[in-house]
Design brief:
Helix content: 55-70%
Structural class: mainly alpha
Number of helices: 14
Distance between the termini: 32 Å
Number of strands: 2
Order of helices and strands: HEEHHHHHHHHHHHHH
Largest sheet: 2 strands, antiparallel
Strand order of the largest sheet: 1-2
Radius of gyration: 21 Å
Length: 373
């Protein structure tokens, strides 16, 4: 069935804004500028402040929800399903997971390439699948287990590619690249916990997706903004890549922005793109399917990779190509993209696992309220 113009617009919006989200964050990391009190030029390394900006983008989804709600109520026949009344505190635990995972990932993005950053986020499939079995009583299909093992193989290949390229990388030390990759994997464990919490406590309340994203964004924005205050005084040694070597020097960030206004463009790109990406992702799932959303998310990795190569942020590595293909196959199996083909083969019915109990997280029926932390 051919896509409508609206569906094409949504798909294009999700692909473009999703790519801009990661690229703009990496672009900000590549800037160097003087800081406060005439300090020498140094890289713009402020991952926690960038995470605050990301949550500000999510928070804007709550504003959009109320704008759409007001518009709908003024129409002769309101059609918008706002969902049932819920306690916003249900979103606090997953929001804290989102805040932690996002902060860790922005730290990792300073240490590794944008393409590896995007590819390694595929590890969330592994941990979500395992946690859904352990804590939600899911029974994964055979194809999903195979998808998990293939994904693990793909992660190892991408990690090997980073190890090989890290020895030749002039921008990042090998130790930084390895640390960054491990931090991304760690963040995916936390992101998987977030998805399990959302499945257990949030989805049953039938909350409008934009409202869900915005509520989590509100908690993440407020809490992390407050945490920037103690972070300004917490020593972090060489881990704090700023003149004062603290966990996060927000004042230094604003001084750098004042000395290099282009950083504002990168930060605004991150904030605006995350808002549009969440809206487009939710709409794609609603108008088309979660499988379409997964395919578009995979294409986003290709765009990020291509742009990174074009602007010289990284060098081509054949192992990355292999790792990406393996990760793509693993994600396709886990999300059931093989079903349309295999359903035509009678002997494959048992392999597909027709029981509804086999449906796990990240399948057609469920997805995180925030797909891009």
């Amino acid at each position: 069935m051919a896509w409508t113009k609206y569906q094409l617009l949504l798909a294009g919006m999700m692909l473009i804004t999703g790519s801009i989200n990661t690229l703009s964050a990496k672009w900000a990391d590549n800037f160097s500028a003087p800081g406060c009190k005439g300090s020498a030029d140094h890289s713009f390394s402020h991952p926690f402040l960038q995470a605050v900006g990301m949550f500000l983008g999510e928070l804007s989804c709550l504003v959009l929800f109320h704008v759409l709600l007001c518009h709908d109520r003024r129409s002769p026949e309101p059609k918008m399903n706002t969902g049932q009344t819920f306690n916003p505190l249900y979103f606090f635990p997953p929001a804290m997971c989102d805040m932690t995972a996002t902060s860790i990932m922005y730290v990792a993005l300073n240490m590794t390439s944008a393409s590896s950053f995007q590819m390694l986020r595929g590890a969330v499939i592994v941990f979500t699948g395992l946690l859904s079995v352990a804590f939600l009583g899911r029974k994964l299909m055979v194809s999903q287990w195979i998808g998990i093992f293939i994904t693990i193989t793909g992660l190892l290949v991408v990690g090997l590619a980073d190890f090989v390229s890290g020895e030749k990388d002039e921008k990042h030390k090998l130790s930084e690249v390895i640390t960054g990759d491990l931090l991304i994997i760690m963040a995916q464990i936390i992101a998987a916990v977030q998805m399990v919490l959302e499945e257990k406590f949030v989805y049953k309340h039938d909350v409008h997706p934009l409202r869900a994203v915005g509520t989590e964004g509100f908690f993440g924005f407020v809490i992390l903004s407050l945490l920037l205050i103690p972070m300004y005084y917490i020593p972090a040694g060489h881990f704090g890549n700023n003149p004062r070597q603290v966990l996060e020097d927000s004042l230094d960030a604003f001084c750098q922005i004042g000395n290099q206004p282009m950083i504002v463009l990168a930060l605004l790109g991150n904030i605006i793109s995350i808002a549009f990406f969440n809206f487009a992702g939710i709409s794609v799932t609603k108008e088309m399917s979660a499988t379409t959303r997964m395919v578009l998310d995979s294409l986003r990795t290709v765009v990020i990779w291509a742009v990174s190569l074009a602007v010289g942020w990284e060098r081509f590595n054949g192992l990355q190509v292999l790792g990406f293909i393996v990760l793509l196959v693993g994600a396709a199996l886990y999300n059931g993209l093989h079903k349309p083909v295999m359903e035509k083969i009678p002997c494959c019915a048992r392999f597909l696992g027709q029981s509804s109990e086999g449906e796990g997280l990240l399948s057609e029926n469920t997805a995180s309220v925030n797909e891009d932390s």
